[in-house]
Amino acid sequence: MKKVVIIGAGFGGLSAAKKLADDDIQLTIIDKTNHHLFQPLLYQVATAALSPGDIANPIRSVFSEQDNVEVLLGEVTSIDRQKKTVQFNGSSIVFDYLIIATGSRHSYFGKDEWEKFAPGLKTINDALRIREKILLSLEAAEIEKDPEKRQKYLNFVIIGGGPTGLELAGAISEIVNQNIIPDFRNITASMTKVYMVEALPKILSTYPDDLSKRAFEDLKELGVEVLLNQRVVDISKDGVKVGDRFIETSNILWAAGNQVSPLIKTLEIETDKSGRAIVNDDLTIKNYENIFVIGDAAAVKNEEGEYIPAIAPAAMQQGRHVASIINGDRKDKSKRIFKYNDRGMMATIGKAKAVAVIKGLKFSGVFAWLLWSIVHVLFLISFRNRLRVMAEWMWHYLTNSPGIRLIVKEDSSKSTIQQLN
User: What pLDDT sits at residue 403?
Assistant: First the structure.
């Protein structure tokens, strides 16, 4: 039996695994967590609209009926290409084929010290930390009597004007102002201020100009102040400096950039400026036809010579393509070439507010939001999760009721202001 090892159970790795699981191979999946995470909805966990269990599923349960699939919890530290081994958790595994699908983490462009003040959003832990920080800020604002000192807890700054930044800004504005603050007595929605900082001349830079403008107007309607052509100079526990302006806040969220796993560097192959592996047209690395890199970790070009976007549909297509090569469906060299089928892009800004580009057609408003909702529900890995998310969304849409808002810090008996400071 062929021995196939997959590092990472994100969209790319899981798609490859599901296609290979029924073949006559010995498949091993290694991941740092025990669950597959539906990252596009992670911001809804961060803003208390959904629970973690709504968007995550144990990897083992996905393959519980495949005896030839082994799932291991651990972090790969190195790869020996000549000996065909993977080292992790002090042991090693031999492979005939290796699929590297390690995804990416947020990048602070050399300012890693900013991370403790401006968390990014890639994992469930990230989402829970952000959610707890937002809730603690509101509690602190409720206690604070001085209007100037209180404002620090009611200012929210999102750095980055891509899809994740838009989703966070829109969700925070809606959920904090419409769902959560009405339960407080000393603070009101008019006191909150949500800022989005974007270094480029427009938000959603990869979208058509008219959709970018529509998204800008939607954010403005929600009360979000968008700062274009503005770069972050410094971030501290007191706030963020944007150009010559300082915004005092305890709520800074990072959505400005990504970097790949350090594991890619250990391969000692050519990478792009973002650290992604430069791969061949069949997604293999140079000189090794049995080692593939897919998803956010790979720099893959389309037929026009442009890099394809680091989004879930692209990773899933790559995963299925690599699986077809390994199981022998693509013996012809010309059929090994990966061709990306661009199915479009979409981003949501809030309830009944979204923009989408699908096969050259542009949509916005309610229709785009419905498309976004349907697509994201269909991509959820388990039928149970789809039902739960649909029920949550319908209830939230009809009643405007908030989601889970628990603060579970061990030191919750301390002053919330002390915790935030």
Answer: 64
Over residues 266-315, the pLDDT tens digits come to 898 999 988 899 999 999 999 999 999 999 999 998 888 889 988 999 99
The string over 339-366, giving b where at least 16 C-beta atoms fall within 10 Å of a residue's C-beta and e elsewhere, is: ebebebbbbbbbbebbbbbeeeeebbee
Q: Which residues 6+ apart lie within 8 Å of 22 measured at CB?
A: 66
Quick check: is 167 catalytic? yes
Residue 219 three-state SS: helix
The contacts found for 405-410 with CB under 8 angstroms, 24 or more apart, are: 405/48, 405/135, 405/180, 407/132, 407/135, 407/136, 407/139, 408/132, 409/132, 409/136
**Residue ranges in the chain modelled with pLDDT below 70:** 329-331, 398, 400-404, 409-421
**Contact between 4 and 26 (Cβ < 8 Å):** yes
Whose tokens are 């096969």? That residue is: 359
Between CA 203 and CA 206 the distance in angstroms is 9
- Residues 390 and 382: their CA atoms lie apart, in Å, by 13
Query: CA torsion 86→89→92→97, rounded to 10°?
Result: -30
The whole-angstrom separation of Cα 291 and Cα 82 is 11
Q: Which residue has the tokens 């709504």?
A: 54
Catalytic residue among 132, 139, 144, 167: 167
What's the full length of the chain, in residues? 421
* 305's tokens: 């010579």
Residue 215 near residue 349 (C-beta atoms within 8 A): yes
Q: Average model confidence (pLDDT) for the chain? A: 91
Write down the pLDDT at residue 145.
Answer: 94
The model carries a pTM of: 0.90
The residue type of 338 is F
Q: What domains can be seen in the chain, in order of their start residue? A: 2-32+74-106+258-336 (3.50.50.60), 112-256+351-420 (3.50.50.100)
The predicted pLDDT at position 382 comes to 79
Q: What integer pLDDT is reported at residue 380 of this predicted model?
A: 86
- Which one, of 154, 255, 131, lies nearest residue 204 by Cα? 255
Give the C-alpha separation, 95 to 228, whole Å.
48
Say which amino acid occupies 292: F
Q: Are 349 and 172 in contact (CB under 8 A)?
A: no
- Quick one: tokens of 137? 């800020």
